[in-house]
Structure to design on (349 residues):
C-alpha cells in the first residue's frame, strides 16, 4: 500500500460527540497494541523540570483532521476551572520551571486564560501560547496580538503548510486565508521580526502518513514562501510528526494507512532523540488537574504515577516524588523518536 496524503471528507465534530469507538483512549491504545510491531525500546526517566505545560481545555473553534486532542467547538465541558488554575499556580511556585506552555484546544477560549498568563508573567516566567491563528480573528480574541506583545508572550502557531491547499486539507476550507490574516496582525504587533520579546514560531505537521521533513531546510523554504507570496514574517519553524492517536488515528485506520505508518515510525527509530524527549523536562497538566508526562500521554489518559502507583494530581502536587517517577511509554511514543525526533520544541536530533 502506498503512503498517502490526507484524503476523504473531514469530520467537523469530535470523536467524542460522534460516539466513535476511538473516543475511548483504551480503544486507541488497543488499536496500536493489536499491530505486530516491536515495543517501545527504552525506559524513560525525568531530567530537571524546565517546562510546566498547562492544557486549559479541549474547546476549539476548529476541528482539524490530525488533532491529537480531539478538540472542537463541541468540547465545552472540558474546561479548566479557576480553582484548578490556582492549584496550577501554587504548584508552579514549588518548581524551578522557567517556562509555562499554555495549550488546549484553543487556550484563548478559556475564560481564565488572561488571568493565567498574567499570573505567570508576574512570576517572571517565559510564557508560550499554542495558538491556532484563526482564533485571533474571533470577537473576544481580536485584541490578543497587542495584548500578548505588551507581555512578551511567545506565540507558537500551527500552520501545516505555507501553501493554501495543504493547510486547508488538514484544517478545513478557508483556514489558510484566515491564518495569513492572523499572521499579518501578529507582524503588525511586532511579532516575527527577530525581537526575543515578540517571538513568533510556526509549527508544521505533515499533511499525511509520512514523517516531517528536514526542519532547517523547511524553515528556509517557508520563510521565502510566506514573505514572497503574502508579505508575512516569522522567527522559527518547528516540525512535528503526527501522533498515531485520536483523530489522526481515525484517519489512519479509515484510509488503511495505520500499519504502514507505524512501520515507518518504528523503522525510523532514532536513539539520539531520547535524551531530548519533552517528557523528560516537562510536566503536562490536564484541564481537570490530572498530571501527565506529556500532552500525548494526557490525551491517552496515561497518568503520571508516583512510585506507589497513585495517579498524580495538581491538588497533591509533590515535585520530589514526581522527579523519581518512571515515564509511562507505549507504542505511540515511536511518533516522538522517528527520524529527527518530534517534541513540543520540534526536531530533537
Ligand atoms: S489541532 Fe489545534 S486547532 Fe486543530 S482542532 Fe486540534 S486543538 Fe484545535
Ligand atoms: S509520547 Fe513522546 S513525549 Fe510522551 S512519553 Fe512518549 S516519548 Fe515521551
Amino acid at each position: 500500500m502506498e503512503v498517502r496524503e490526507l484524503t476523504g471528507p473531514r469530520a467537523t465534530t469530535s470523536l467524542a460527540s460522534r460516539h466513535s469507538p476511538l473516543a475511548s483512549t483504551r480503544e486507541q491504545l488497543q488499536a496500536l497494541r493489536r499491530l505486530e510491531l516491536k515495543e517501545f525500546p527504552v525506559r524513560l526517566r525525568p531530567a530537571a523540570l524546565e517546562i510546566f505545560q498547562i492544557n486549559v481545555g479541549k474547546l476549539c473553534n476548529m476541528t482539524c483532521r490530525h488533532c491529537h486532542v480531539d478538540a472542537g467547538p463541541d468540547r465545552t465541558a472540558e474546561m479548566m476551572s479557576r480553582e484548578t488554575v490556582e492549584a496550577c499556580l501554587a504548584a508552579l511556585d514549588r518548581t524551578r520551571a522557567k517556562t509555562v506552555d499554555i495549550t488546549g484546544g484553543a487556550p484563548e477560549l478559556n475564560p481564565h486564560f488572561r488571568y493565567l498568563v498574567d499570573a505567570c508573567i508576574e512570576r517572571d516566567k517565559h510564557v508560550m501560547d499554542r495558538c491556532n491563528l484563526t482564533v485571533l480573528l474571533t470577537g473576544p480574541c481580536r485584541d490578543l496580538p497587542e495584548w500578548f506583545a505588551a507581555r512578551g508572550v511567545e506565540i507558537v502557531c500551527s500552520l501545516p503548510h505555507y501553501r493554501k491547499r495543504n493547510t486547508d486539507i488538514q484544517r478545513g476550507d478557508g483556514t489558510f486565508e484566515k491564518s495569513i490574516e492572523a499572521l499579518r496582525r501578529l507582524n503588525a504587533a511586532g511579532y516575527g521580526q527577530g525581537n526575543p520579546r515578540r517571538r513568533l514560531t510556526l509549527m508544521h505537521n505533515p499533511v499525511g502518513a509520512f514523517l516531517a521533513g528536514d526542519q532547517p531546510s523547511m524553515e528556509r523554504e517557508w520563510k521565502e514562501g510566506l514573505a514572497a507570496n503574502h508579505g508575512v514574517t516569522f522567527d522559527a519553524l518547528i516540525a512535528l510528526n503526527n501522533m498515531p492517536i485520536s483523530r489522526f488515528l481515525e484517519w489512519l485506520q479509515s484510509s488503511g494507512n495505520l500499519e504502514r505508518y507505524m512501520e515507518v515510525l518504528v523503522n525510523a527509530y532514532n536513539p539520539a532523540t531520547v535524551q531530548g524527549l519533552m517528557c523528560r523536562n516537562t510536566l503536562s497538566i490536564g484541564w481537570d488537574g490530572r498530571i501527565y508526562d506529556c500532552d500525548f500521554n494526557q490525551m491517552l489518559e496515561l497518568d503520571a504515577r508516583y512510585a506507589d502507583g497513585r495517579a498524580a494530581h495538581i491538588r497533591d502536587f509533590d515535585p520530589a516524588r514526581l522527579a523519581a517517577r518512571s515515564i509511562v511509554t507505549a507504542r505511540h511514543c515511536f511518533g516522538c523518536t522517528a527520524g529527527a525526533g518530534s517534541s513540543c520544541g520540534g526536531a530533537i536530533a
